[in-house]
């Protein structure tokens, strides 16, 4: 398929369940054959852009959509297929094979990493290693077990296994697990409120429940949410509890760290201040430097009434060593700290006119 530039995305499942990570697809449950793979990934086939899911012997589904990775820095090259392959490998123990139709290369994604293979024999080695870890031992042990066990022994072993499964799959004791959960603040008035120090991006949440409840739970769906629209007090204390966490069924909130977030109300007043343009470097000897003119020359800044006063605002510096003639540049305003903010009408971009003239010899 790589030699013929036929794009493909093939998933070999490991021990972990894939259902909660993948979406869509068409049930097939057919034996893996080369003609079948070719027909699925034919560009005229309706499911050729999706992935094939396999248990090692059969194709379970095709046309399946995989989660896309957000770690794009790991992808030196490749498109959506490669991003999807990496995304699934970050969430489970599956092995994902990608064939690039643009470059005719083969890549594999496993354990949150993706790499391009140098040869077809490299793919065989990875498949052999994966097969040995996830399939071969299971197949061999099942065959040997069937050859040497009598029916009576098999029934006794099966009964014991069922009892043990009931004991461990549905334990009665409570399990506690801790997750890093993102925090979102809605209706936070940018000109009236500000969080003390830096805005907490996440908190550590401990949940309790049964082992079975945790097995069907996706931690990535957890979020802590605060709606500040109705808050009118001077200083807020936001308690993290079950009321502001989207808890799944079967799990309970136990504790949070930090358990309380501090919100401090700030007052800002508008102040008109001049814009100043700093310069660096030295102008060429045959040129004479004229004053730099910013536009606008005056902007409106919102200043915290409890902070120090401000008499001007600086832009990014102009490098005179790079100036050969009169030129116009765009420079960003440099506002540092939480005590000063631009008004909604003000733009952070300043047009800077650099005037020079040649010196007559």
TrEMBL record:
<dbReference type="InterPro" id="IPR003390">
    <property type="entry name" value="DNA_integrity_scan_DisA_N"/>
</dbReference>
<keyword id="KW-0808">Transferase</keyword>
<dbReference type="InterPro" id="IPR050338">
    <property type="entry name" value="DisA"/>
</dbReference>
<feature type="domain" description="DAC">
    <location>
        <begin position="1"/>
        <end position="120"/>
    </location>
</feature>
<keyword id="KW-0548">Nucleotidyltransferase</keyword>
<dbReference type="InterPro" id="IPR036888">
    <property type="entry name" value="DNA_integrity_DisA_N_sf"/>
</dbReference>
<protein>
    <submittedName>
        <fullName>DNA integrity scanning protein DisA nucleotide-binding domain protein</fullName>
    </submittedName>
</protein>
<keyword id="KW-0067">ATP-binding</keyword>
<keyword id="KW-0547">Nucleotide-binding</keyword>
<dbReference type="Pfam" id="PF02457">
    <property type="entry name" value="DAC"/>
</dbReference>
């Amino acid at each position: 398929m790589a030699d013929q530039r036929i794009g493909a995305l093939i998933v070999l499942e490991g021990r972990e369940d894939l259902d909660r990570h993948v979406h869509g697809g068409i049930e097939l449950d057919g034996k893996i054959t080369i003609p079948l793979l070719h027909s699925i990934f034919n560009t005229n086939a309706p499911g050729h852009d999706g992935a094939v899911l396999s248990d090692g012997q059969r194709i379970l589904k095709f046309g399946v959509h995989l989660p896309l990775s957000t770690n794009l820095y790991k992808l030196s090259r490749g498109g959506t297929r490669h991003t999807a392959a990496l995304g699934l490998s970050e969430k489970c123990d599956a092995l994902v094979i990608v064939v690039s139709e643009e470059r005719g290369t083969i890549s594999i994604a496993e354990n949150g990493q993706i790499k391009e293979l140098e040869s077809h024999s490299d793919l065989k080695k990875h498949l052999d290693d994966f097969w040995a870890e996830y399939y071969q031992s299971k197949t061999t042990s099942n065959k040997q077990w069937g050859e040497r066990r009598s029916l009576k022994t098999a029934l006794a072993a099966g009964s014991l296994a069922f009892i043990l499964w009931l004991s461990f799959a549905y334990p009665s004791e409570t399990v506690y697990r801790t997750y890093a959960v993102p925090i979102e603040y809605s209706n936070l008035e940018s000109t009236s409120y500000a969080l003390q120090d830096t805005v907490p991006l996440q908190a550590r949440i401990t949940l309790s429940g049964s082992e079975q409840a945790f097995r069907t739970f996706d931690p990535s769906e957890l979020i802590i949410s605060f709606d500040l629209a109705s808050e009118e007090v001077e200083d807020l204390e936001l308690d993290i509890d079950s009321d502001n966490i989207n808890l799944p069924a079967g799990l309970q909130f136990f504790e949070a760290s930090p358990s309380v977030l501090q919100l401090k109300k700030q007052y800002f007043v508008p102040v008109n201040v001049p814009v100043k343009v700093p310069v660096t470097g030295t102008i060429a000897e045959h040129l004479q430097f004229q004053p730099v003119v910013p536009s606008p020359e005056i902007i409106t800044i919102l200043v915290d009434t409890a902070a120090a006063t401000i008499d001007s605002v600086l832009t990014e510096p102009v490098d005179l060593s790079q100036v050969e003639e009169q030129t116009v540049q765009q420079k960003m305003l440099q506002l540092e700290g939480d005590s000063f903010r631009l008004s909604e009408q003000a733009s952070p971009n300043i047009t800077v006119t650099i005037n020079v003239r040649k010196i007559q010899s």
